Amino acid sequence: MRIEAPLQYLESRTFDEINVGDCSSLVRTLRPEDIQLFAVMSGDVNPAIVDPEFAHSGMFREVIAHGMWSASLISTTLGTQFPGPGTILIDQSLHFSRPVTIGDTITITVTVKQKFDHNHHIIFDCSCTNQDNLQVVYGTAEVLPPTEKIKTKRIDLPEITIADKYARLQALVARAKGLPPIDMAVVHPCDRESLRGALIAAEAGLIDPILIGPEAKIRAVAEENGFDLKTHRIVNVKHSHESAAMAVTLIRNGDAEALMKGSLHTDELMAEVVSRAAGLRTARRISHVFLMDVPTYPRPILITDAAINIAPTLEEKVDIIQNAIDLAHVIGIPEPKVAILSAVETVNPKIQSTLDAAALCKMADRGQIKGGLLDGPLAFDNAVSFVAAKTKGIKSAVAGHAEILVVPDLESGNMVAKQLEYLANALTAGIVLGAKVPIVLTSRADTAETRTASCVIAALIAHANRAKLASAE
């Protein structure tokens, strides 16, 4: 719940200090996080409240707060403001007039109605009204105020982060809302997660999957897990290597406009993609980007390259950065802030990554890298923390606000990305850029949700490619 400008101290009023007609008010605005926190705390996961799709089909046609969320604010007012600390709630009677929806601002008012000298109880009229001055909850509360005056310092509560990966996935999927599905060649989906990821993406309207692999094996996985393949195309081949070759052939023939890696090794797929004779190369260096939504970071962050280029040269880093900048444009970041990472934030001739960073920044100044704002070398903390950058005296539009992290090599990038995914509960999407089509390249250990998130990015890129082709014609 939002606590706006709290007083440093809480101070109570005793029975003798309170008169009939005295009142106090509190104001709160309902946020989505309040509903989630209340559901977690109470265990009330009524789908009419916590499931947006279910809620939109219900009586109110939108997500509403738990009724007791509003009622709890009455208790907050009584216990922290009036009478204040030490107040004991004896009895309460409430009537719920109308729902509270996300964004509603509720004013809670408690007014002294009656005092009882024999037991020092007080009855309050309680009212909760919304921003339109319409009553949402009203009733009475009987309390026992403190017998002695209490003044105590307000306790600072810990910050709480809602790490709802499913909600963040739905928000990402919404980026592709209204776009027709793209034809995607799914290479060797012969385990549960790779097949499930393709089917979830299809159900979300992101892709029209072409399942390439041994048909008997694909159907066996589907049957074992209860997946329905009736509406999906299957291209029957003998093994994983043939699956990769067939997928590239479909792309070259114009039968698909994106690839998705299934349960085969990355090297096996990429060998076909980069084949000079019949692959999907362009003039641009092929590279990989992890797009990550980290609950503790205020903006999406792109990490490159953590999967394809092992120890990229300066020339290769130019393409790696340009690929990432182009992706940032596709997902709605007009001028991404690019942090070129190293172990330190100063140029050191003994550390090659700092020399590369300095050169890359100057290349951007000269227009050799376009569309982004580059700075480096920057250590990881300076790139993502404005406080860390300020402490070290770094003045930069990128430091503390990075949207693209360019890592020195594959090892460091892979470690950073996996740490964010497994220790910070980041929602992760993986995409290969620089080829003729986007390639969803995920780990065999990745979940179907990660694969679905990657399909969103692939769909956005494919539609951007269509738009470029149309404008060129």
Describe this structure in words.
It contains 15 helices and 18 strands. The protein has helices at 32-42, 47-50, 52-56, 67-80, 165-173, 192-203, 215-225, 240-252, 266-273, 314-330, 352-365, 380-384, 386-391, 410-423, 448-472, and strands at 9-11, 23-29, 88-96, 105-116, 121-129, 135-144, 151-153, 182-187, 207-213, 233-236, 258-261, 287-293, 301-304, 337-341, 373-378, 404-406, 427-433, 439-440. β5 and β6 form a beta hairpin. The protein is elongated and about 95 Å long.
* CATH class assignment of the largest domain: Alpha Beta
* Proportion of helical residues: 25-40%
Domain count, please report it.
3
Rg over C-alpha atoms, rounded to the nearest angstrom: 29 Å
In CATH terms, what is the fold-level topology of the largest domain?
Answer: Isopropylmalate Dehydrogenase
Q: How many β-strand stretches?
A: 18
Strands of the widest sheet, in order across it, are 10-9-8-11-18-17-12-13-16-14-15
